[in-house]
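Project channel, design review

CF: Before we commit to the Isoptericola hypogeus constructs, I'd like one complete example in the thread so the newer folks can see what an input/output pair looks like. Taking Copper(I)-binding protein.
RD: sounds good, go ahead.
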Amino acid sequence: MSRSARPARTVVVAASAAAGALLLAACSPTTTTLPYAASDGARVNLTDSVRGLNLMVVTEGEGMPGAILGALANDSAETVDFELAPAGAAPLSVSVPAGQTIYLSAQQDGDQVLDATIDAVATIPGTNLEATLSGAGADEDFFLPVFDGSLPEYADYLPEASAPAS
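CF: and here is what came back for Copper(I)-binding protein:
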C-alpha cells in the first residue's frame, strides 16, 4: 500500500505548490501599469495634471553652473507658476499656460523651450541633488540626478563655465 500512496502524495504536493504559486502571483502588483520615469531624469507629480518630467542637471563639476533638462507639464485648465529650487542654487521660476508643456534646456531652440541654467551645482556629477518642485498649491521634495558631459547625449548641454562659484 505504501507504493501506491507515494505517487498520489507527489501529485498532491505538486498541485498544492502550483496553486500556491498562482495565488501569490495574483497578489503581486503589475508594475508596468504604475507611472515611472523611464529615463535618466526624475518624474515629479504635483497633482494628477501638473508635473515635472525627466528632470536632471548637467554640469562640469561641483560648484560649476548647471543646465536643468526636462519638462514642466500643465494639463490643467489654469496657468501654473512652477518653482524649481535645487539645493545651493537660486530657484528657477517658470509659468506654464494651461494645457502646455515647457521644455527646459541650456539651449533656446523654440517657443516652448526655456533656457534653464542654474548658477552653481552643490554636488558632483554621478550623485543626486536635493530639490523641491512647487506649483498648483503643492510642493514635492525629490532628487535631481546630476550628469556631466561624459555621455555624448548630454555633452552639448553643458553650460558655459568659467570658474567655480564661491
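RD: helpful, thanks. The beta strands are 42-45, 50-59, 66-74, 80-86, 92-96, 100-105, 113-115, 117-118, 128-135, 138-147.
CF: Confidence is low (pLDDT under 50) at residues 162-166.
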